[in-house]
């Protein structure tokens, strides 16, 4: 007896490697690179301006970090770390160079080849094991970078899902760090 459930498959078509490569390169790679360039270049300029323009004796970057210091202390961080995560939103991989730039008081990003020097800079600026653990938790639950948020917006066509993608890890991270630091 024939089954009442029937699965109809579309006709088989031989894959066209050229179309797949072109579509993959243009639709995915160049689109993401273009978006990251549109976001990262202005962000780099803003970070550089904030690091070089002084108001009184302090740079704008230091003023922002000092303002964020009390909020950062609630999460077991310092103002420079929180500032770096905020300014690192266009590209999450620039967070550590921004932290080092702030600690060293330079207006350029720092070369990350010498890990011993990086460890020395961090410990000289008050990093402890607890600070390192808090930064790791903060990194694991960090909000998505701007390019990812733009991709979510394009694919879902919804500002609601984009905002939720940003808010959910941010809320979870802040609650987690706040509770973690209360009990330590």
Q: Describe it for me?
A:
This protein has 184 residues and is mainly α. The chain has one domain. It is 69% helix and 2% strand. It has a two-stranded antiparallel ribbon. Helix 6 (129-140) packs antiparallel against helix 8 (159-182) and helix 7 packs across helix 8. It starts with 16 loop residues before the first helix and ends with a helix. The mean pLDDT is 81.
Give the DSSP E fraction (strand runs of 2 or more residues): under 5%
Distance between the termini: 69 Å
Main-sheet strand order equals: 1-2
Count of spatially separate domains: 1
Overall mean confidence score, pLDDT:
81
Q: Which value, in Å, is the CA radius of gyration?
A: 22 Å
Order of helices and strands: HEEHHHHHHH
Largest sheet: 2 strands, antiparallel
Structural class: mainly alpha
Total DSSP helices: 8
What is the number of E strands?
2
Give the helices and strands, then pairings:
Layout: H1 17-52, E1 54-55, E2 58-59, H2 60-74, H3 79-87, H4 95-104, H5 115-124, H6 129-140, H7 146-156, H8 159-182
Antiparallel strand pairs: 1-2
Helix pairs in contact: 1-7, 2-3, 3-4, 6-8, 7-8
Output the keywords.
184 residues, mainly alpha, two-stranded antiparallel ribbon, 8 helices, 2 strands, 69% helix, elongated
Would you kindly provide a brief summary of this structure?
By secondary structure, the chain is mostly helical. Helix content is 69%, strand content 2%.
